[in-house]
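Q: Got a minute? One more chain.
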Amino acid sequence: MNTTSSAYQHHLKGLLVEHYHEQRSAKKIHPQKAYHIQGFMEAGLLLGSIDKPTLEQLIDLAHQEVFDCPYQARHQPKVENTSLLDIPTWLRRKTG
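A: Always. Here it is, folded:
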């Protein structure tokens, strides 16, 4: 890893940790910051400052630091009652 790549990854991790802390305390995502980070990640991939597996690992590290769990564990859908999934949607009764 060269110095530019290392500086890029260090800055990106800082952006992610800051964003996750704001998300955790405010319970919402700030779209402008999310778009900024997304663009920064795309630029890093395009310029070769980071590769996709390293990027995913960096996201997990930052997420683990703030939320104490990997990114995927927090973003998987939680389905408690799967019995409704066996019924076609057009037959399900609306609730609430």
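A: Residues 4 and 46 are 14 Å apart (CA to CA).
Q: Perfect, thanks.
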